[in-house]
Amino acid sequence: MTPNRHNSSAQQKSSDNDVVLDAVRDCVLAVGVRRTTMTDVARRAGVSRMTLYRRWPDVRSLVGDLMTREWIAVATGAMPESRPEVGMRPPLIDGLVAGVEAFRAHPLFQKIVDVDPELLLPYVLDRRGASQEALLELLAGALREGHADGSVRVAPAERQARTVLLVLQSFALSLRTMTDEDDAELTSAAFLGELRTVLERTLTP
Questions:
Q1: pLDDT tens series, the chain, 205 aa
Q2: How many whole angstroms separate alpha carbon 90 and alpha carbon 65?
Q3: Residue 39 CB partners (closer than 8 Å, separation 6+)
Q4: Read out DSSP for 111-177?
Q5: Which of 14, 47, 155, 194 could form a disulfide with 160 if both were Cys (CB 3.0 to 4.6 A apart)?
Q6: How far is the C-alpha of 19 from the C-alpha of 62, rounded, in Å?
Q7: pTM for this one?
Q8: d(CA 174, CA 152)
């Protein structure tokens, strides 16, 4: 059988991108976004700066692609196996709560929040990023499955997905402003329990 050159080329490009994005991640975790340079990334990735500039104009565009890769990996990794016997809603809610917890614990997210929080502001105040678009697509698909099996309240899937993502973002980005780990009623775990209740109430038919 003749190899599919297009697929091989796409796989190689993806692999090359991962090498570069791994290098960006290491740089950001070490010194933050503002102190990361294209030279640093090229050196860690073992490529020339010109190779980077052919694909990414600057460090922020590199970090944007890195965030998309990492956040989508968190979201897909948190989703449990579907359970047809209970419908889509229970595993979906389990996955969403687990995803928020995993996102908040992610080293890249923690570093950005601690050192370069302004990097997140455009995606909170002005526009949706690629990772948000991908998450909305995943959410809308799961919600439609829930509509079909009767486990999720029927509503326009696009609007419902955006509403759910707004709730998830508020917990993921702002939870530490509300927690008090010394008070058993105000711990992160207690608030994640509240998130589960919010999702149950809004998605139950």
A1: 445 655 544 445 556 789 999 999 999 999 999 999 999 999 999 999 999 999 999 999 999 999 999 999 999 888 877 787 889 999 999 999 999 999 999 999 999 999 999 988 888 899 999 999 999 999 999 999 999 999 999 999 999 999 999 999 999 999 999 999 999 999 999 999 999 999 999 999 9
A2: 31
A3: 49
A4: HHHHH-GGGGHIIIII---HHHHHHHHHHHHHHHHHHHHT-S--S-HHHHHHHHHHHHHHHHHHGGG
A5: 155
A6: 12
A7: 0.86
A8: 27
For the record, the structure tokens of 88 come out as 């889509």
CB 139 within 8 A of CB 163: no
C-alpha–C-alpha distance, residues 56 and 142, integer Å:
33
Task: Tokens 């297009």: give the residue.
Answer: 6
- ∠ CA 75-76-78, nearest 5°, is 70
Residue 47 and residue 40: Cα distance in Å, rounded?
10
Structure tokens at 13: 């490009």
